[in-house]
Structures are given as structure tokens and as C-alpha cells.
Amino acid sequence: MNITLHINGKEQPVECRAGEMLTDVLRRSGYAEVKRGCDTGNCGACTVLVDGAPVLSCSYLAVRADGREITTIQGLAEEAKKFAEFLTAEGADQCGFCAPGFALTVLSMKEELSDPDEAEIRHYLAGNLCRCSGYEGQIRAIKKYLEAKHAQ
Amino acid sequence: MEILEYARPRSTDEAFRLIREQHGTAIGGAAWLRTNTKTLALGVDLAGLGLEYVREAGDHIEIGAMTTYRELETSRPLKARFGALFEATVGHVVGIQLRNIITVGGTVAGRYGFSDLNTTLCALGARAVFHPGRAVDLADFIEKGAEGPFLLEKILLPASVRAAYQQMRISRNDFPILNTTSAWTGSGWRIAVGARPAAARLCREAMALLGNDPHPSDEKIVAAARAAARELQFGSDIRASAEYRRDILPVLIRRALTEVRG
Amino acid sequence: MRNDHSPTPPSADTALEATGKFNVVAHDVPKVDGEGLVLGRPAYADDLAPSNALYVKLVRSPHAFARILSIDPVKALALPGVACVLTWKDCPRIPITRAGQGNPEPSPHDRFILDEYVRYVGDEVAVVAAESEAIAEKAAALVKVEYQVLKPVLDFEEALDNPVVIHPEPGIHEMFPIGFEPARNIAAAYRMEIGDVEKELAASPVRVETTIHTQAQQHVALEPHTAFSYIDLHGRLVIVTSTQNPWHTRRLLGLAFQMPLHRIRIVKPRIGGGFGGKQHIHVEPYVAMVTMKTGRPARLALTRREVFEATFTRHEMRVTVRLGANPDGMLRAIDMQVLSNTGAYGEHALTTFMVAGSKTLPLYNKAVAVRFGGHVVYTNKVSAGAFRGYGAIQGLTGLEAAMDELAHRLGVDPVELRRKNMLHEGETSEVFRIMGEGTEGIAMNIESCKLEECIARGKELIGWDPGHLVREVAPGKLRAKGMAIAMQGSGIPLIDMGSARIEFQDGGFFKLHVGATDLGTGSDTILAQIAAEELGVDMEDIVVHSSDTDHTPFDVGAYASSTTYVSGSAVLKAARSLKAKLIGAVADKFGVAPGDVIYKDKTFRTADGTQSLSLDDFSYDTLYHDGAKMKTIEVTESFTGDKSPPPYLAAFVEIELDVETGKVDVVHYVAVADVGTPINPNLAKIQIEGGLLQGIGLALYEDVRYSDTGHMLSHTMMTYPIPSREDVGRITVELVDSYEPSGPFGAKSAGEIGIDTPPSAIANAIRNAVGIRLTEYPFTPERVLAALKAAKAQ
User: Domain residue spans in chain A?
Assistant: First the structure.
């Protein structure tokens, strides 16, 4: 099938099979920031925003994305760089494989929740697994990032 | 998953026609298709039919079949009527990125054993509305399924029910070992149990035992909880044995009932 | 008397216990690759594969044990877009090991890249390559394989001397004596004894015995094993792969394919976690076969299911510990007997098993008699391999259970019992001398051990009160505390070797080339910190390039907690030599003796203050301006330790136990560690935090489960739950001040020590909560409730 994806504000016609998932189509189209981690909807590494909402691209039919706005972390690069400063300041970026999907969910949380406490942060981000960090450093980074955002 | 032909109908009528006449398979949230090796001759996409809504309708709340889990847990009408019930019920389902995809309709139609949501819907006394307007008892549907092709359009929830959800998982985002929801309907008690690991069932003996007393004693609650463990069938799977499920069910039911009773 | 292997001589500044003296080291420098990774720039093998690469898929065994009678590729080859189907007949019959270890490997060469036999469900049968992933998948399903199904051995308790022999094939062998007896299903065996254990036990007034069974565990690095290969302009085979050990990979592939090593180049790009899971060859041989056969680039990224079913797990072990002690708690004897399950092949069989003793028994060096022994057996399950903790976590879980039981028997504070018996600074253990990794050990005096400080701080942080280790916080909900201590090592002495090359560049910066392999731990960053510190420059003045067998100097790889200590020491030596060379060259230019040149703030000055030259200016002088004196100033240095100084950790946990359901939750986990000088405190701390959570996963959630036909049931992340960020209440990690004289700027290691304690500390907390010693991991709600019911029934 031929569909048109709007990725990071850019129109991109792609060819896909009807049963294909968005992850595979995006990676094939050069969006390396969308990672293939678990294949089963558990790890969050493939997270993208569809019409602004974080979804697992491995569990999202590519054809269904036809005509919708898809945002990868590259589409929010400026804000992602700001968050990256806080994440790397804690050393919590580690292997980085989960980082694009994780950072995208953090940016989405910032838009959706006004002043989340630690439990709300952990809950919102529960779908982003990390095997390196033990999560503590990520939580420290998120808290400091949100504080800095509030201070602005 | 291979989908040989993909259809995006413009109306529920058209969708139902494709399902009934061309043996189409309704596509709900469509999560977890990636590792599915099945081939669908005709996939009928239900997105874009306006089935994404949670709305008040008199003494009921209507939930469109394509409403996502995330919409359920953030829905104001549901929060106003049921407090944190829906957050508790679906909040452990992996993460919000998956809950932004998977749908109420897909869950109900799939009658999945591991479902958290179906347990709560059964306990609330929900009805499932099939196109073009046939309403059936949802617990009944989960138990027996439907005859012939169907298109699930929406779920109806009685709006003035108090309920509490309890579950057991090995880790917080794993599939449940067991879940249960207890509800006071205003005239009686309803208790549903899911992830046995088979699909949700009502505990009719336990419900009868509690009768129409909105404030059952602790003893009565314990007796009902035990009755539920006796009347249901349990199975074993990778997460736990039938015996363990039977052992902890009275504990979970007692906790849920006590929470609703206050 | 020092020999050629002598470690870095202590610097002139050895008294640098106060880390405040450092400019770059002991600072929380952000990882050099962090921003790029967060932004998702192409970095991992699968991101970098050429777009014209063939997609490789593997046909895998559906049987736990079978002989392949025939493979019919006709249907698969008929599919348009299929490039080749390769089988064991396309493979030289050379036994190898897939374990990335020193040469000769302490693992038996008991495996062929492809074989006529398959020994677990998921074992490789055939290699299919096609123009797209979908075609390759379809083709793999069309390869028709006829099997003669054999009876498998699935229970490791029944493997020894089982009539079913898993490796009857001729030609397989050990590289040196490791107790390899395939006819008895033994991959490796070992025993040692110090003193007379039976005599001491018999004479001990107090004795305890515990047997603990720890399960297999999956690494679950978020990036699946991935590689691509191509033939370069010179006709050489290049493999870009998610590996922890590029040189071992090159050497093993050379052996497997009978290729001279100069024909192979291995490149490690960024990799998405390892934890030991990528310390092997798993994907590289198959892309290489396709590229060599077709001349085309080839790519293979395993699915998560393949990672689970067909890479490696942690070794399942049964550990029996017997302790004999005096009534005052002084240990007299420790006996540790181990049965380890290596699965279908013997990768890391001997070494993980020996580490169960060698990196735990020295903790309690007061015992006069110590014995260790047992077997590593084959079964028809997926192979076990290297995994963070590497046997130490299994051995420790047995030892720390026994220590707590002894404390209960004596009615003393388990903390005090440990303090009385544990290793202290300035002491040694005979075990260090006797037990190495597959070889004899190396005697070692402990020059840094701050276990006392770790314990004292840990007690404070958790609020340890031995009289009140359990309380009921709600009906049926108990909060209880438990503890454990641990040690690891820092590289394998006289076996692990790392090198670093530093070259001075115009612009006054330095290229740092290291063979060391950053798995995401941040080693590129900390190695640059070490170089920057010694060279007196800033982080941005060091440009790191790592892990490329063509372009960086040799390093054994990232494992055995070696990178900071071994590769870091190489970097320090190189930086020190280079600094001397720079000063020498400038002295020559100034016409003074090197001793008269002072180098500070990136500027060279003569002692009398008459001449000065900036590092920047000198870089142009030496490369462009100085005529006949022009030269590249560079140096390569290597390091191998003659000891392996252990890091230490004291752990205290508070759990909540639901006595009605058996659910155990970690409320707070406190770990205080002595890692020597943390080169980058943030990164060291995160290593420990991550290790702790992985250990908590092993203790409570994770289990590799099989059907009774040997099919893995827990083969996706839907059936193998790892901890999410909502599972554990709080993790507190602190590092105590410590300085290891033999390490770079006082550093030891932090990579593995974090994972060791959780299974022990949590078990001990449950024991304190309900008086029951759980012995089967993981402690699922069902297991805990069953134990409570059994205790009640008695």
C-alpha cells in the first residue's frame, strides 16, 4: 500500500504492507531514533507521538498513521537537547538505547501533567523500561528538568 | 500479521457489512499484531468511525468501542462516577504508550483471559451494544461469546455503582495472576473474577450470599469471599498455579468488598 | 620484585585521598555521547547497516535434542529475493567456543558454528539471506528440515552420568585441563581445600548448612544482538557488531572459518547494553557466512524472542554452604559445594562456577579451613554464559544465607557476626592465591577495604536496629529488614590486558584510542577523564575513539569489571608517558633539560620564567613549523594488573511482605559501596543502582521457564517481566571514601558489585519477617505463600 506519513512536520510518502507496524516502516524510512527493543509492546523504546499522544510504534498499524502527525524525538530536538542536559548531568543516559523513546515520553508528560509528584512521574513513564540505570538517575534528572521548566 | 486486504469503511453500517458479508475481521487497537503470525483475508479498520467517546447518557455512561485505555483512565465522567476505579483497573497495563492504543472494544470482543478491564466491566453490570443496536449483558458475552459475526459499537455502564478493584501481579506491569472487582449496584452486590487465567466470571453464589445488604458484616464478607473461591474454576499457567489463585482469591475479594462497603 | 606486568607506578601525588585535588577525575562529567544518544542519532549496528545489505534469518531447532537428517532448501531458494540458504555442510568442521575470553579459553571447544546436531530449542540449523526482512522470514519458514528427535536432559540435577550424553561427538576438546568429561555430561569441574574442612566442622560447636537454588536469568539489554558485515575495498571482511569483546570475536571467527586474522576487522559501534550478554559471538558468524558466500553486505538483528531463546542466560546453580563456628561466632570452616547448569554448551562453564567461590569466600577470611568444589553440567537448555555477577551472585546467595542462619542460631546481630569474620584492609585470603578464573589465583594483599565504613553508613541510612527488624504496618503486612555484604574483582590479573594510544594533534588536543568497549556504561567518558586529568587539559581536548580492531590498540574487552581498572590504567600510563614526551620535546626546543620545564595550565614554561609556549602553539610547531625536528608525538601503553582489587558493598533492604498473598515488595534498598576513587561518581553510582535493580529482578520477578519438552515458556518480555520504575520504592546508593593504590587515581571497579547482594539481602529480610528461609529463586508471591503455608502446617 502507498500511504503518506507526516513525520516531524515533513510529508513522506511510504510503501507498506497492510499488516505492518509503524516501527518497521519508520526505521526503513531512515528514522533510526525509533528503536526496536522487544517486539511485544513492553519496553517503550519505539515510542513516537501520534497526533501528540505517545504510542508504541511497534504496536501501531502503519496504515492507521496515514495522514496523522507523527513526531519522533528528532521532531522535538530543541527541547530534547534541554532534557538531555539534565539526563547526562546525572549520568542516566547510559547505553542510550531506550533514551529517545524515554525522552519523548518525558516531553509528553511535561505537556500533559502540570506538576507531577514522583509517583505520578514513575507511573506516567512506567512503559519505558531501562535495564541500565535502575531508574533512580532518570528520576533525579526529570525532577531537576521539571523544576528548571517551572522556574522559567 | 499479514493483512491481505485492508478496508477503512466510512460508517458502522459499511463496517458491519464487510464483517458480515465478506468475512472481514474488525481491527480495534491492533496492538500485539507484530508477533502474530496469522493472515487476515480482510481487515476492517474501525478507526475513524467516531467510536471514541465516553459520555453521560441519563442513568448510563456510554463508552465507544474504539475508546482507548488512556481515555478511560483520564475520563472526567468516569472519574466523577467511579473515582479511581478505572485508573486502578487499567493503570498496570504496561504503559501509557500502549494504553493510548488498546481499546475497550478490542478487549471486550477478544474476551481475553488476562484482561483487567473485562473484570471490572462485568462487575459493574455493563452491557455491550452490537451494531445495529442489540444490547446484551457483557458478563454473559464474555462467558459465552456471540453467535455469528458482530460489530461491537459501545459499552453501557450503569452510572451509580460503587466498585473496587484488586489484583495480584508478579511485577507491577506484568500480566495479572488474578484480578477481581466488587461492586454495590444500589440493590445488590456483584463480584467478578478474571485472569483465573481464563476470562472473567461472576461469582453468583458469593453475590447471592451477600444479598442486598449494603453493609455486610466482616464475617459475611469472608464467607462470600470463600464461596467465590469454591464456585469458580482456576487454571495454572506460567505465572501461578490454580491452587495459588484459589488461595488468594478470598483475600482479594475481601479487600475489594471491604473497600466498597467502607 | 616487580616484573614486566607491573601495574602503574603510584604517581608523585599518591596521597591524593582527598578527591578535591582532581580537576577532571572524581567529577560528574556528562557522558561524551549522551546528547547524541538521547536525540537518537544513528549509532547502533542496526542504525548503520548499509541499505543494500541482505537480511539474514536463522532457522532454529524446534527440538531440545535432535540430529538433523536432511535440510531441503529448494522451496526457500525458489522464493524471489532469496540469496542463499547455508547449513552445517557449508561450515568448516572446527570446534570452537562462543565465549569471549582470553586465549586459550577456559571454556571447552564443544560447539560448531552450525552442526549436524541441535542441542536446545532455538539452536541454529540454517542461515537464510534475502533482499528484505519479510522475504527472509518467509524463506526461513520454507526450509524443510527432517530431524531424528532424541531424548533430552532438561533437569540439571539429573545430568551427571545420565545415560543420555549431550556431547558424544568426536573432536571437541578442552584447551587446558578444566575437568571436561563430556561422556559424563560434565563441562567442567574443580575442587580445592585449605586446611581440613571436615575436621574443623566436626570440631565446631555450632554448625549450619543451607542449600540455595538460583535460577537462570536473562540479560535483557534493550538492544537485541545485532551485526552487519561487508567486504571492504581490500577484500577484507568487516563486521560491525554489538560486542563486548572485538578482539576475541575476531580471533574466534578466524578459528571458526580458518581465516587469517588480518583478513578480519571488527568494529563495535554504540551498543545498547551488555551485562555480559554480548561477551560472546552470537550473530557475527552468520552475517559473515552470508557475506563470504555472496560477497554482499549482510545484516542480522535478533528478535527479542531469539535473544531469549538462543543467546545466553545466567548459570542456574545449586549452592550448598556448610559453616562451622565457635560459640562466639568466629568461623572455623566454610564448605561451598556447587552444581552449575551450563545448558547445551560450555561457555564460561568453569569460570562462572569458580567465581562462585573465588569472589565470595575471601569475604570471611578468618575461617581456618575452606573448601570449594562441584561440577558444571550440560543440559538441553539454552547455553548459559557471562552475566554481570558471573557466579559471585550465585555463590554469595548461598554464603550470605548461611551467615544469616548462623546469626540466628547464635542469637546475634547478623551485622556483628559479619564484622567479626570479614576481610579488612591490610589482610589477605588464601583463596586469592589458590583460585583464579580457570587457573591458579594470584596472592593479593588488600590495600583498600572500607567495608566497615560501608556497613556503618548503611546501618544509618536504613535505621538498623537488630532488636527491631520486623514490624506490622497493617494487618497482615509486615515490614522487615535484612542485609548482606559483597565483594567482586577488578579485572582478571595477568590475563586481562588493555591498551591506549594517545596522539597529540594540531590545535593542541589529543586523540585517545582505546580498545576498551563502552557498553553504555560511560567508559569512553571515564577513560577520557583519566587522560584529561593526567594531561592537565579539559574534557573537550580529548577525542575518544574506541573498539575497532583496525584503528584502536588491543583490549580484551569489557567484562570482569575490568575497564576502569585495567583499561583505565593503560590510559593513565599512556598519558603519563605522553606528558613526559611533550615535556622532553619542548625542553629540546627551549634548549634546557626536561627537568627545567614546568607544564601547567596547558602551557610550558622554563623554571626561570624566561621562555614559555602554549600547548596549542607547540602543536603547530611540532607538526608544521619545526623543520627537521617536526614529529608526531604519540604513545601507546598497555596494562595488565598483577592483582584484582575487590570493590565492596554493604546492602540493607526494607521489604514489605503481604502474609495473606505472599507478595514481597522492596520498600527501600540501601547500598554503600567502596569502589576506590569513583572516576565519575555519577556513572559509578548508576552502575550500582542499575545492578541493584537487576539483582532485585532476579530475587523477585525473573525466571527462565521451560515446558517439559524443553521449550522456553518465558520467551518474550510479556512472559519474562523485568522491573519497571514502579516496582521498587526507593534505592539509595552512596560511595565511601576509598583509594586503591594500584588503581588509576585510586579507582577499582563498579560494574558488577551492585548486582550481588539483592537476592541475599531480600532473602534475609524475609527470614527476619516470618522466620522462613526461602531457598528457591525467584521469590514469587506463590513461592512465598507456599512457604508460609508449609510452615503453618508444621
Answer: 2-74, 76-151
